[in-house]
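hey so i finaly got around to running the thing on AlkB2_2 protein from Jannaschia aquimarina. pasting the sequence first so u can double check i didnt mess up the copy paste, my clipboard has been acting weird all day
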Amino acid sequence: MTITAVSESQLRNPLRALPFWASLTMVPITWAAAYLGGWWVLAVPAYAWGAYSLLDVLAGLEEGNADPMTDRRALGWYRAITLIWAPVQFVTLFGLIFYATRAPHLGGWELAGLFFGVGVIGGTIGINYSHELMHQRTRLERWLGDILLSMVLYSHFRSEHLLVHHRYVATPRDPVTARYNEGFHRFYPRVLWQCLTSAWQAEAAMLARKGLPWWHRSNPFWRFAALQAAMLTLAALIGGWAGLALFLLQAGVAIWQLELVNYIEHYGLTRRHLGDGKYEPVKPHHSWNSAQKASNWLLINLQRHSDHHFKPDRPFPLLQTYEADEAPQLPAGYPVMTAAAMFPPLWRRMMNPRVREWRRQHYPDIEDWSAYKTASNPMPR
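ok and heres what it spat out for the 3d tokens, dont ask me to read them lol
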């Protein structure tokens, strides 16, 4: 891979930003699936996983890096897609609940398949966009991020991600750093519980440092609960018990999608323990990187995850890609890798040799990896 420079004038061109609006193509596909019924209800997952896996092969790698010091006022066309997505997803989700619960041509399995696809949208696009928004500085963007997370009942992800994951990534205190040889089916139930508790503890600790109790009104968990209750109530009002069940189904699928991505982003990667609970700073080589062009369009450069952890406040158009000697590279984009993660023997065959090579490259002096493999090193201070 030969990295090239992208100028500010190129970034200002709306046509260059247009591929990052690919998420909008999922909306008409979902409505067409609802209207047609039958096997068409599986169109969204087929499009998100199958089509983008093929497009990655055809489009190749994105080898351009924008100047990270680019004036952020040049990024308006990129930022716009993240700002409009919350109302787009809201109308799509609740419009489909209204339509599907009154559509005589949709049977039980078709409703399940259709809202499985809605969950793929909520996890692949909605949570991903909320992730971008929660890292921004304006109240509007953070509120839009909270609204997106409430539509999939995973509001605590904001607290866990900002207060725990970024601080403790690749250490034993980070729940979503998947351990070496830990299959996804063991990782998933562990992370669901540990992320919720770690998010709560982080917010309670922040309040305690201010001399406030956990039940203080500034605890964002009150806002999280209110938003999620509002979404559940609206689903029930629009679609009754069936609407509520379909809402819960899509939320569960979205959460599963998120944690699949969390699983592959840091699998087996650890920061050096310096002794006495101290760990080295986060570097690009502590996250897996993927330069596949098409899936980075759909996921607004989420696959440039190495740079995101290195510079968390960098907006997605300015995220950098890295050569293999600077950051470990996934063998394929997220659509392929998340599918592989569902089959632990296949995943280990693909990824364990890469983890071992990563250790030899970055930490040739470490001979005993047992504590790193089991996350039994001392907790970071």
